[in-house]
Amino acid sequence: MTQAEIKLCALLLREHFGEIVEAVGACLLGTGAQPLHAIAAAAGLSLQQVKKGLCVLIQHNLVTYQVQRRGLVEYEAQCGRVLRILRYPRYIYTAKTLYGDTGELLVEELLLNGKMTMSAVVRRVADRLTETMEDGKTMDYADVSSTFVRLADTHFVQRCPQVPEAAEAPEAPPAPALVLSEKDMYVVPRLSLTGRGKRRRSCDEDEAQEHKAKKQKGDGEDAEPPSDDGIYWQVNIDRFHQHFRDQGIVSAVANRMDQTSSEIVRTMLRMSEVTTSSSAPYTQPLSSNEIFRSLPAGYNIVKQVLDQYLTLLADDPLEFVGKSGDSGGGMYTVSILSLSSILIHRFHDFPPSLRFGSRCARIFRLLLRKKHLEQKQVEDFAMIPAKEAKDMLYKMLSENLVSLQEIPKTPDHAPSRTFYLYTVNVLSSARMLLHRCYKTVANLIERRQFETKENKRLLEKSQRVEAILASMQATGAEEGQLQEIEEMITAPERQQLETLKRNVNKCVGVVGTEVPPSPRPLPPSPLISRIDASENQVDETIFVLESFIESTLKKP
């Protein structure tokens, strides 16, 4: 765990959970597994504060605990899980794309609360959807429940481990081990949720209902708990990562081959998305006949053409698809380890061109393709003068983008009798880039927080003016009225906004912003949203790099 990761984790914990949780989390990240009293002493907090902070972290699966031999409970922070907070907007956007607004809100509620029962999350989402509907319309609990069942069937949500019944005995350890059988992980309890979402009452209605609510409180204590009491659900982050990985493979196939090939691979991935583990190197074998029957209805290709495409994919050097047998017209699998090829494509447009220019990028691509080259060979193949090629190679060598390998002819390693070969260590370069991405996201978060704090009043005023202008334009206001509203922002304030805009543009630099916006309680200023979107864009690169490193280490 690097300092850049610890710093980024601390910033994410502070932004989402506050200072106390950040202090507890940063202490565990920096020192490793610690008991309760050691955390309180290291973080400078009271035991009560540490307990509350640990409760929040455990609720969101950011900290795990383990009972030691002497009965002492030690808590350990999960750095990788904390870094996933940065990817929450992407999870929510994916749920919206696949399952609509209901799926989006279900995933958002589970992410915001860590763990929830099905009945609780269904009621809350139904209430939120009812708030957005026209007067007189409400959201039925059954509709929300059906979407939740679909999320569970496709493994995007899963049950949380439970305390075994034996642990509830008086002799139970101080921290019982949570267990969950794999067969029950996605089993949805049978609930009879009847009703519709409710709208929030006004203050007057709340006062009128206060006495009635107090009266019903005593009766509610004696009521039976819901049938799913104690069965909690959480978001299956690995399943979302599997979906992102599949999308990357489909995109790489489309770039390499054509749209038909990518649709065939998409069908194969969709058929095995539930049966294949997220950590498996290959998908489950699928016969050509099964693939043909599962192709989209509107995709008219004959069986013979499908077999030709599968053969072409299996013979491709990048090995997106492999053939594992001849039964059923041929058995085919999709290689998950082909993520390495995706990263190679990303490398082709990578920072050598942004940091050192297009000629450095040409040399970098050349080394990726040829593996090992001497300096003279680099000059000849890249068609770059010797002095410039030498300078560019040394620049990239100093940045650890390329490495130099010595192959001596004699044991004395004399320079005159030694070959010096330049090469690209892709795994080492990926780790270096991942470290820089962590630092970049941390800098973006700090910059966004600074600009928001320094320009809070001006940004709020600008948002109010923009909202008034939008509502007046929708009602057909005259040009003079609109101009009067625009003049609410004075000339010095406009100049300050322009300065802020220039600073934001410098901050986001070349980072793209075509990503889903991050969900927040209040909509941020469009200027600050650009930094926020840049954080998400960098996280996409982080995901590719992490997936590549993980898949490379799995290779035999």
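Second entry:
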Amino acid sequence: FPDLETNSDLNSDDFEYEDEAKLVIFPDHYEISLPNIEELPALVTIACDAFLSAKSPYRKQDPDFWEEELQASKHAKALVQLDNGVRIPPSGWKCSKCDLRENLWLNLTDGSVLCGKWFFDGCGGNGHAMEHYKETGYPLAVKLGTITPDGADVYSFDEEEPVLDPHIAKHLAHFGIDMLQMQVAENGLRDNDLKPRISEWEVIQESGVKLKPMYGPGYTGMKNLGNSCYLNAVMQAIFSIPEFQRAYVGNLPRIFDYSPLDPTQDFNTQMAKLGHGLLSGQYSKPPMKSELIEQVMKEEHKRQHNGISPQMFKAFISKGHPEFSSNRQQDAQEFFLHLINLVERNPVGSENPSDVFRFLVEERTQCCQSRKVRYTERVDYIMQLPIAMEAATNKDELIAYELKRREAEAARRPPPELVRAKIPFSACLQAFAEPTNVEDFWSSALQAKSAGVKTSRFASFPEYLVVQIKKFTFGLDWVPKKLDVSVDMPDFLDISHLRARGLQPGEEELPDIAPPIVIPDDPKALFSSLLENPNIDESSVMQLAEMGFPLEACRKAVYYTGNLGAEVAFNWIIAHMEEPDFAEPLVIPTFGEGASSAAAAFGAVGLDNQPPEEMVAIIISMGFQRNLAVQALKSTNNNLERALDWIFSHPELEKESEPGLDMMNMENSANANILAETGPQGPRIKDGSGRYELFGFISHMGTSTMSGHYVCHLRKEGRWVIYNDLRVCASERPPKDLGYIYFYHRIPS
């Protein structure tokens, strides 16, 4: 009988075991040893054989995932170290070639501090450590931040693998590093770097405070499978919501009874199994008093087998996804949207639990010159709040801190005590409500390009409001960075003033007129130039990338949706994020390629013989209407070159198109890919008041979404609880001001 994977180590060398299989018949607990072809029906025998021969998610993992015993490097014993006077400070490191401050490696020959590039620990960099080895031949490097009295992470460039350095203490002492004074935190950051109650690592994890473990239903931890804390944090928050509990755990018998022949590939089965593990209490039991006494008497600590390992769930939910299927750290917000997408596509029962997150956004676009407006609606699941840095209440302290930090960096001294920007929540809410400029706006009232502004309001309020603080952004060099700020998030939130009002008296709507199409002398040459030099709206790309999506996926989304804006491109991302090449670089089809190759480049034609949406978007981006693009592609077997010729040979059809309706159809078409319950009446929503109460938040520690650690805090039974992977404890100081994603529940009217 398949059970939840618990946090036990069956691969330990301390055990010798042999496999024995039995078929157990309940409720009499009658056992039959396997194999047994004489007593069992043929179908039962086949089922047992299939079960025994199936590979578990553990065995399906990449062989590189399993840790191997490290070997001593051949260079360690006779390593040459230059007497160049280099001394490594206890903190404040950065790559000497690119100023990167993470994934840094100390070369043990000359003391150079350089960045790595996707080494065995999955961290990213620009590869300057490897370049230095190729230039100098200096073979060994140690990763800064991993040095403890017990050792450190050492990599051999010559041997191309992680190695042991039996003389690491001597080699580090050459550069002034005393191993006995170094401690490393569970997250990989040295204790020397952490200042009491200042570092977000300590504050968010409530380090230095004795936390009381919590046990029982709803207090079950989840094992970190290797940078899977983003999944653990999101799933703990999801299964604290009654609608998800009822949909999956409440319907568990029915889901299991009607599960397919291979339940490992069924979303609802895996959700029900995970939910049962978290909520049943079977995997969160306090140690027996006798066990505690025995441990104290023997002065030993036996590892508790509490908590569950979501190995099978992660294997299924990340299958085919280029990011979530890896062992690298991911963005919790991106995973939340990925999960909602799967919930939408796999309805369970009469109600879809994801309905509680869905809301409608009304966007009002205004031409600044004519003052005319256009109102549109779109679906969303997250309220994204910008950080109003200019509204910081401690600007003088921040300026003084920055001056001290630069002085310490220049003098190679430890940095000063951190000063974090304090941002009022009201300022972030005001920034969300303010109008934003519309890039490259074409006014249908003026029949020309003009200045335009856009404001967003709630056309409906969801049952559960998810608020994301947009901490992740990009620098001028496109390097992702995180804003280390403190936002005073309220326990009670009222956004009723952000309710959409629709077209107001005295407002005049923009006419439904599309930009004029200028027919060039050589349309094929224009088409070729568009394909070879695609015009991609980089501002839309930036908006999507700030949400945490891979940069190349954002570029494809904007390109394939014809630069119609970040909202339409966002819908494309949701609909395509499970494709294997989702994060691969954009490949532009060449002009004149055959219909079959063109269709293959964009995705197969649908069962309803509709052309691939991406091919339609390319023609739309040239100024043609959607219905004309679809008709042209259908008439030419989805050949881009012939479709363009067909359009220019049928100019009379252009006059029959309805541009305003056409734009709406495209947005609705994209939204339909993620809405399971969208009909003529529109998407299902649970509208109500705009007053909410905070019940949970997910926090991120680290400098970017590609690294760091996630922790979840939830309010249960009148008190806050911290979920830090397997550790579930009563929270003493919930860091509500440092969260990344917040969960609010509507207050009943």
